[in-house]
Amino acid sequence: MKRVTGIGGIFFKAKDAEAMRAWYKNHLGIDVQPWGGAAFDWTDEAGKPVAGTTAWNISPMEGDEYAPSKAPFMVNYRVADLDALLDALRAEGCNVLGKAEESEYGKFGWVLDPEGNKVELWEPPPGQ
User: Which stretches make up the VOC domain (predicted)?
Assistant: First the structure.
């Protein structure tokens, strides 16, 4: 079974999220959107779009979206078959959090790594 196929997103917290977003926009040219992040569409070596996007987001420190992790970041990994991977992780004794969730953006599941960092696993919708 193929497990992780790529990075789906990088999410981190900042003491002053708005100032950090402005810095990344002004100095690194990241097209920060009103929702607090940017979407990087994947392209091939010629710059032609291919199926896939990597999300990037900065959120305020006081949010609890990474709980139960205390880390100020979370990495979202793209996976091919979320349900099979979560079953395998459970069988291997990993700390899988709750049940998978499904939305128009695909299927999501979470696991804690050995140091308590929350890892998000994402199976994109078909065709993406």
Answer: 6-124
